[in-house]
Write a structure and sequence with these properties.
lipid metabolism, sn-1-specific diacylglycerol lipase, 2 domains, Fungal_lipase-type, alpha/beta, cell membrane, lipid degradation, 5-stranded mixed sheet, two-stranded antiparallel sheet, disordered N terminus, Rossmann fold
Length: 208
C-alpha cells in the first residue's frame, strides 16, 4: 500500500516516474544485476502495481530488457511513454479503473463533468450513488465531452504528469486496438466506477 501512496513524481534523466513504483523498481533491478549482470536479455511482466514496476525496470536495466504489462497504472511521463514504445507493451481492458488512478487523469475527468454542466442544463447531469439518473446521464457525458477529451488531456498535461507507459493495447469486446496515452481517460470515462471507488461527496461537490 505504501508503494501506491508514494505517488509524487520523481525525475531521472529527463523522465518522471511515480516515486513509489520507481523505488521498488530500483530495488528489484539492483538484486537482478547482482545475480545476472547487465548482459542478459530480460523480460519483465506484471499486473497493476507489478506492471508499473516492470515498465520502470526496463528503463533501469537497459536496452536488453522488455516489459509486458497488464492493467498498468499511470506511472511515467509522456516522453518516457513515447520513447519506450518498442520495449514496453501495456494491455488495458475496457472498464479497468487502474489506469485512471493519477492526479492528471482525475483532473481531466472532473473537468469533463464541468464542461458538460456548462453545455447543458445542470438538472440533466445528476450523478448519484444510486438510481437510474446516473446511468442515463453517462451517455450524454460521453457524447458531448469525448470528442474534445483527448485535447483536454493534452492541454492540461505538465512535464511531470504521469501516464500509462509504452505501446498501449486496449481490449474492448474481444477486439484489440492500439491507443494513445492521452486517450485512456476518454476510453475509461465510466463515472459509475468513479463513484464506487472514490469519495462520493467529493465527486458530487464537483457538480455543484
Amino acid at each position: 500500500m505504501k508503494t501506491n501512496l508514494d505517488f509524487y513524481p520523481i525525475d531521472d534523466r529527463d523522465f518522471y516516474f511515480h516515486s513509489g513504483f520507481y523505488n521498488q523498481a530500483q530495488n528489484l533491478v539492483a538484486h537482478l544485476k547482482s545475480y545476472i549482470g547487465l548482459n542478459q536479455n530480460v523480460v519483465f511482466t506484471g499486473h497493476s502495481m507489478g506492471a508499473a514496476v516492470s515498465s520502470i525496470c526496463t528503463f533501469l536495466y537497459g536496452n536488453n530488457s522488455r516489459a509486458f504489462c497488464f492493467s498498468t497504472p499511470a506511472c511515467c511521463s509522456s516522453n518516457f511513454s513515447v520513447k519506450y514504445q518498442n520495449q514496453i507493451t501495456s494491455v488495458i481492458n475496457d472498464g479497468d479503473l487502474i489506469p485512471l488512478l493519477s492526479t492528471h487523469a482525475l483532473t481531466v475527468m472532473l473537468n469533463r463533468v464541468q464542461l458538460l454542466k456548462a453545455a447543458r442544463n445542470a438538472n440533466e447531469v445528476q450523478l448519484e450513488p444510486k438510481g437510474s439518473k446516473l446511468e442515463e446521464s453517462l451517455p450524454l457525458l460521453r457524447r458531448d465531452i469525448n470528442p474534445s477529451s483527448k485535447n483536454l488531456s493534452i492541454m492540461q498535461a505538465e512535464k511531470n504528469s504521469l501516464f500509462v507507459p509504452g505501446k498501449i493495447l486496449f481490449v474492448e469486446k474481444g477486439k484489440i486496438r492500439e491507443v494513445n496515452y492521452h486517450e485512456i481517460g476518454e476510453l475509461q470515462a465510466n463515472i459509475v466506477m468513479g463513484i464506487q471507488h472514490f469519495a462520493e461527496n467529493e465527486m458530487l461537490d464537483a457538480l455543484k
